[in-house]
Specification:
The protein is mainly alpha-helical. The chain has a single domain, classed as NCX, central ion-binding region (A middle domain of Talin 1, Up-down Bundle), CATH 1.20.1420.30. The protein contains 13 helices and no strands. α3 packs parallel to α11. The model has no long low-confidence stretch (mean pLDDT 79).
C-alpha cells in the first residue's frame, strides 16, 4: 500500500497516535454507557469495550493473514495478548491506593481469567496437531469460537447470579453508577461507534506500514509483529485502562483487559479463516508458541493474584504484577534473541 520505507514509518506512527488518542476517549464514553445502559462496568467491558479496543488487532491481524504472512499475523495477535496482561501490571503501579487486583475484586474477572487460559490452550493444541484443514479451516478454529461463546454465557451467569462473593474491605472499589453520567445517550453511542471505526481503520493502516518496514529493514515478521505492531495495536487497552482507573472505574479497567484478550481469540479464528495457505497454525514459525505460552503463564499468575487479593506488596503493587512484569521482560528477550 505504501511506496517507501519513510512513508510506511510515518503511516505506522500516525496509526499508533490515532489509536492512542481514540483510546483515551473510549474509557470516558464506555464508563458513561456502562452506567446508562445498566450493564455495569464488568459486562460492558466484556461485551462492548473489549470488542472495540480489539478492532486494531483485528484489522492488523486479518490484513497480514490475507497477505499470507502467518508469522506477522499470529505474532501480532498473540503478542498483543501478552502486552495487554503486561498493562495490568503497569496499571497496578499507577493505582497507588492498594493492589489493583484487590481493589477490583470481582467473580466476573476470575471467570474471565479462567476462560482466557482455556482459549489460549486451543491454538497451541492446533499447532501440535497434524496439519489438517477442512475448507481452509483447522478443526480447532470453530472450537475456539464455540468455547468463546459458551464462556461468555458462563461469565454473564457469574455476573448476574454469583454463587459466592469477594470479601469487601476498605480498599475494595465496588462498581457504582456515577451520577455525573447524565448526558445524551444517543450522543454517547454515536461517539462510541465513531471511535470504534477510527481505531479499526488506524489498526489496518498501521499493519500495512509494518509490512513494508519488515520487508525493507530485514527485521523478522515475528519481531515486528510481536513487539512493534503488538504494542501499537494494544495501546487502546493501555490508554482505556489507565483512563478508567483515573475515573475510579476499576472493574471496567480489569474486565476490559481480560475481555479483550478473550475476544482476540476470535481474531485468531478470523486469521485462520482468512489465511490462503490452509491452516495458519502450521504456516508460522514455532517461536510463535512463545507468546501463547507466556500469555497462559501471565493469566494464571494474575488469577492467583485475584484469588489471593494481597492488599499491598513491595512498592505497593501485588506480587502478581511484579511477576508478570518479569515474565514479559524474559519473553521479550527470548523473542528478540530468536528474531
Amino acid at each position: 500500500m505504501f511506496p517507501s520505507l519513510t512513508v510506511s514509518i510515518i503511516a505506522f506512527i500516525i496509526g499508533a497516535v490515532v489509536i492512542v488518542s481514540a483510546g483515551s476517549r473510549l474509557a470516558r464514553v464506555a464508563d458513561e454507557l456502562a452506567d446508562r445502559t445498566g450493564l455495569g462496568e464488568a459486562l460492558f467491558g466484556i461485551f462492548l469495550l473489549a470488542g472495540v479496543t480489539s478492532l486494531p488487532d483485528f484489522a492488523a491481524t486479518l490484513s497480514a493473514a490475507l497477505d499470507a504472512r502467518a508469522d506477522l499475523a499470529m505474532s501480532n495477535v498473540m503478542g498483543s495478548m501478552a502486552a495487554n496482561l503486561l498493562f495490568l501490571g503497569i496499571a497496578d503501579i499507577i493505582y497507588r491506593k492498594a493492589n489493583l487486583e484487590h481493589a477490583a475484586a470481582s467473580t466476573t474477572n476470575l471467570m474471565l481469567a479462567a476462560l482466557l487460559i482455556v482459549l489460549l490452550a486451543l491454538p497451541l493444541l492446533a499447532i501440535a496437531s497434524p496439519p489438517v484443514a477442512l475448507w481452509g479451516l483447522h478443526p480447532i478454529t470453530p472450537v475456539i469460537v464455540a468455547a468463546y461463546l459458551f464462556g461468555l454465557h458462563l461469565v454473564r451467569s457469574t455476573d448476574t447470579k454469583p454463587m459466592w462473593f469477594p470479601r469487601y474491605t476498605r480498599q475494595t472499589v465496588p462498581d457504582k453508577p456515577d451520577p455525573q453520567n447524565q448526558g445524551s445517550l444517543a450522543k454517547a453511542w454515536i461517539s462510541f461507534i465513531a471511535l470504534a471505526a477510527v481505531t479499526g481503520m488506524a489498526g489496518w493502516v498501521l499493519m500495512e506500514g509494518a509490512k513494508v518496514i519488515s520487508d525493507e529493514t530485514g527485521l523478522s515478521d515475528p519481531l515486528i509483529g510481536g513487539l512493534f505492531t503488538a504494542l501499537a495495536t494494544s495501546s487502546p487497552e493501555l490508554v482505556t485502562t489507565i483512563a478508567a482507573i483515573r475515573r475510579g472505574a476499576l472493574t471496567l479497567a480489569v474486565s476490559n483487559i481480560f475481555g479483550t484478550n478473550c475476544f482476540n481469540m476470535l481474531v485468531v479464528a478470523a486469521a485462520d479463516a482468512g489465511y490462503p495457505g490452509g491452516s495458519i497454525y502450521h504456516g508460522m514459525a514455532p517461536i510463535q508458541m512463545t507468546w501463547g505460552l507466556i500469555s497462559i503463564l501471565m493469566s494464571a499468575i494474575l488469577l492467583m493474584g485475584m484469588v489471593q487479593r494481597q492488599r499491598y506488596g513491595i512498592g505497593r503493587i501485588g506480587f502478581e504484577s511484579a511477576l508478570i512484569l518479569t515474565v514479559y521482560a524474559v519473553a521479550l528477550g527470548i523473542v528478540v534473541a530468536s528474531g
